[in-house]
Amino acid sequence: MPVTENWKPTIVAFCCNWCSYAGADLAGSSRLAYPADVKIIKVPCSCRVNPMFILRAFEKGADGVILCGCHPGDCHYSTGNYYARRRMTLLFSMLDYLGVEEGRTRVEWVSAAEGVKFSETMNSFVEKVRALGPNVRLGDLRCKN
Amino acid sequence: MQELIVRAKELLEKGEVARVLGWKKGEQEYDAEPAFFETAESLDNFVYNGFCGANLSKYMIEAGKKEGKTLVFLKPCDSYSYNQLLREHRVDREKAYIIGVGCKGKLAISKIPFDGILKVSGAQYPDAQEILTVETLYGTETIPYKDAMLERCHVCKGKDHVVYDELLGESADTVDADRFAEVERIEKMSPEEKFAYFQSELSKCIRCNACRNVCPACSCRKCVFDSTAFDSEQKANTTSFEEKMFHIIRAFHVAGRCTDCGECSRVCPQGIPLHLFNRKFIKDINALYGEYQAGSDLECPAPLTSFTTTDAEPGVGRG
Q: Cβ A89–B313 below 8 Å, yes or no?
């Protein structure tokens, strides 16, 4: 994909039902702006996100993937986000190892009261991914198409 | 080798074990392959030499479904895999009689760079000679034993078995390299170089599934890579997603359970250094959640099924 001035990244945001999705809702009802490039997928808990979801998002053409969940200690299911944190730490480190720039992956804890944080996070993440350009890697590590 | 056969025959004849799991002669001397022996006579084909790198612990899952005890020979590093399977309740300790065999480093035929190999002498255990003599169609060559060793033996886990009923033979620690040196080398590359490196390695993959089938940690009854569209077992899926992400997914599925036995790299017909994926996870786990060796301990919590409230945030401590 050629990089043009008008190129818009595709960002997939996995948001947990209890905090971050409500945070996104608050951002909306507070009329805070965040780029339309962010596609939100609601999940019951951040630990519902199987590492394969992230890989599949990249394979399907995402340029960046962000996972949002309740703040550690605030998980609706008590401990889900602690497990998610370990998994994502390892997965993102592996993606970095494979050559997917670390700016394309991010985890952010956003509570239901943090509409402003949600909007700021999405703005800065989209900016960062836009600077990195389209994700040409991970689409096909085995170069078989 | 002879003492192993004698002991195995003794246990078979006494009826203490119903079968023996070991290695048998292949067509070539360097083709030793895992095999079950049910009778004392069949043990004549038993072999234990430098080419018996195969880890037998995974076969104990199948053996556990049969009647009676199975005698299994485990090298020190194989015993970690067995212990890990024990922890995951995949094998039945009651149905195994484990003889810990001595190991002084195993050989990889692919590391012996001569054509037309007929015979490798010095590969007979326990005479782990310093120099191997290789008879080929074109003459006799020599190579230092160390140079022909499997990659995993250069980062040997040590000479002690973590689980056994009895020990036979001596082991030696053959470590002579830094386990994470190659991972660190890749971590220092730029994103472009990293991707180019892995693309060049992974594009060799023919999706034969040998790495999955040999892996002791890959012992799920139902594997995500099995197709649901065919009745025949182990038919691989061919969706583009799996084609592309196979190795990353596989490495993640065994993260925290992989003992770094190196079987994946040993069996890869294309010579892809698959252990580099597993080792990256092990390196990160060690750095972020404390030193952890899967299979060494049956009690301590596994890194991906436990947590602390003060764990590092994703993105911290990246190479």
A: yes
CATH code of the domain occupying A11-132: 3.40.50
Contact across the interface for B315 and A144, Cβ inside 8 Å:
no
* Nearest chain A residue (CA) to B185: A97
What ipTM was estimated for this complex? 0.91
Q: How far is A143 from chain B (nearest CA, A)?
A: 6
Walk along chain A (145 residues) and give the pLDDT tens digit of each residue.
556 778 899 999 999 999 999 999 999 999 999 999 999 999 999 999 999 999 999 988 899 999 999 999 999 999 999 999 999 999 999 999 998 888 999 999 999 999 999 999 999 999 999 999 998 877 666 655 4
Yes or no, beta carbons of B315 and A92 under 8 Å apart: yes
Q: Can you give the residue ranges of every domain in chain B?
A: 2-106+155-168, 181-305
Domain extents in chain A: 11-132
Q: How many CA atoms lie within 13 A of A1 on its CB side?
A: 17
Instruction: List residues in chain A touching B: CB distance below 8 A.
Output: 51-52, 55-56, 59, 72-73, 79, 82-83, 85-94, 96-102, 105-107, 137-145
Residue A56, token pair as written in the block: 């599949």
Element containing residue B24 per DSSP (H, E): strand B19-24
